[in-house]
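The protein record reproduced below.
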Amino acid sequence: MSGDVLFYMFALQWAMAGIVWNGGKESQSFDDDRAVIKAVSMVSDHEIEADRQREIQANYHFGFTFFLSGLFPLFACILLSVFH
């Protein structure tokens, strides 16, 4: 029973890490909006690119934290299955 809980903890944490890592690369849903295009034309490209780089870096760091936190339940699950 505890092995199942550990496995689901590991799977959930790594799934969330995958969503965070892949979800923050590029936004395609707002690039075609007329209001966004107008707002982007009012702001310099340097500020937008710097903000996107900060967001990507923050998403990578947050996803890496989820990835590392999922290693403990994975190893515990493996150890529990080997020695059980």
Observations:
- The CA atoms of residues 76 and 82 lie 10 Å apart.
